[in-house]
Protein 1
Amino acid sequence: MDKQLEKLIKKIYQQKFPKKKFVPGQTYIPASGKVFNDKELYYLVQACLDGWWTEGRFNAKFEQKLAEKLGVNFCMTTNSGSSANLLALSALTSLRLKERRLKPGDEVITCAAGFPTTINPIIQHQLTPVFVDVNLTTLAVNIVDLEKAITKKTRAIFIAHTLGNPFNLNQVVRLAKKHRLWLIEDNCDALGAKYQNKYTGTFGDLATLSFYPAHHITMGEGGAVLTNNPLLTKIVHSIRDWGRDCWCRTGQDNTCGCRFSMQLGKLPFGYDHKYIYSEIGYNLKITDMQAALGLAQLGKLDRFIKIRQQNFDYLYSKLAELKDYFIFPQAEKHSEPSWFGFPLTLKPNLKFKRHELLQFLEANKIGTRLVFGGNITKQPYFVNYKINYRQVGKLANTDTIMNNSFWLGIYPGISKTMLNYVIATLNKFLEKHG
Ligand SMILES: Cc1ncc(COP(=O)(O)O)c(C=O)c1O
């Protein structure tokens, strides 16, 4: 049955998703996207045919394999990178952490040049985000400003390895240890990146991943929280699974052996442990179909990262001569980035504006993206909701990124022929406007 099914799915895949010829100027080149074949479809159908559907055998295997790959003790899947960020930060507010728990009014250091859902959990928990600037070539946190930002109120650092380029983990971990701060790595853009030969996402108390289709591997929607800490694992599981006190996995019962013989809160003795809630929880679990998709993708991760790196290097070598126009990306020292995109920042005083260049590329079927929210403090929700925050210095580089940066695609679906077209089109624009 399995072999028959596999064969049939391969045939359907070939019919439904035939290889498309790239026609320059006609075929759209997206900045990001998913790459898959019949293997993903076969795993998905197997998960459907299991008839289980909520997290199950595929999820267990995915979590185990990813944890092993990264060299981290615990990997917990969740339904998005944003949920992973919410879970990681929420875990640090748990009563189980006693005097180390985050409380309203505590400060969390982060960057304004980034994605909103790194910051929103901080706001949600009535903590104060403290913004520090980033470096223009690495897009990573500025360590001098980070150190300046630390006060008596500071309790945590929550920052991203933006576009797959690790931040200076030596210094960030040193400062976190020195000042007894929690560290969350938003590793959503950086699966597979290494710092001093160790995977990012394994340095902090907690780290997060996204499996949205733009990311290194996809589940359609999905994410994960990573940690080496058993207590944080218990808290994250609980918050992810409705806030329940019970630690049985989906479909299990009474693994504690005292399901009907506990007394917690003001509930009566013997209240079913399955319905006892000790955290303020949600349901942020994934389905086993998502996990099946992720498992098929995980087997391709190393190849995907390699192609991204090759595409990055190729663009770098061919665009380097445009240094009068652009500030180029630079890998953080001691790191091997797992590039998410190829960032470029327009130099000052050019004869054209960023939006003119991006419109030209779009009109020529080349997709681009900005460095997410630019300066988050200038976003309408920040302004209109009058969100309380503190910032260190003027965030001048963050504003430059908001005004002048963008990134080009390098995902594994982009071929050398496509990159040649991107390079030629960029040069064409500069000949006209440069
Ligand atoms: C740095 C960063 N954090 C978090 C997220 C959120 O991930 P998701 O889209 O899976 O919610 C993203 C999304 O791209 C991201 O780039």
Protein 2
Amino acid sequence: MYGMVNQAIEAMVTEKFGAEKWELVKARAGVDEPTFVAMKQYPDSVTYALAGAVAEVLELPLPGVLRAFGVYWIEYARRGPWGKIMMAAGHGTYELLAALDQMHARIAVSFPELRPPSFRVEPRDGGVLLEYRSERPGLSPFVIGLVEGIGTLYDERVEVEQVTSREAGAPFDSFLVRAAPAKGG
Ligand code: HEM
């Protein structure tokens, strides 16, 4: 994955737990480089090793770390150079979820080697069913955090429930997402 993802993990750990913890995480993950380059491609194994090392160093469950990183990523991306592209893609949770492939495609103009996931939405039970397809394993908790983070962009209270799971043998992961205005409910 592009270095910007690893940079965001570094920013989250440093902001929330301090620079010393980040050094421990890098050492545990076997990462020698002092910094990551946003526009450079790194093997996915580096990102997985970092996530695993965060969980070990902070003694937290990995799914919880991935979910917290999803929430963090949205705020981090909003502040970053591509924040405007994300914000222009939708004006509410459901709208942004429906526009994710288009949004990643616009980002791929600057990141030609991007291998983004693919999302599909359809109305379901007073919310939407979000289908998530990826060539990478194990990232469902990350998606759950991302969707929760998207809700905070629009001051919406968002509930996410996993419906199908690749880990359990389904062909793809899917989630039931319900969003409502945060106030008055
Ligand atoms: C400005 C906003 C965003 C930028 C710049 C961005 C960029 C990226 C980048 C660079 C990757 C790594 C893939 C690679 O390097 O090949 C990635 C992966 C991913 N992105 Fe985004 N993204 C943005 C917003 C979002 C949002 C709003 C979602 C919401 C669901 C999302 C979902 C994902 C997921 C789940 C992955 C993990 C890769 C996978 O599942 O295979 N991204 N994105």
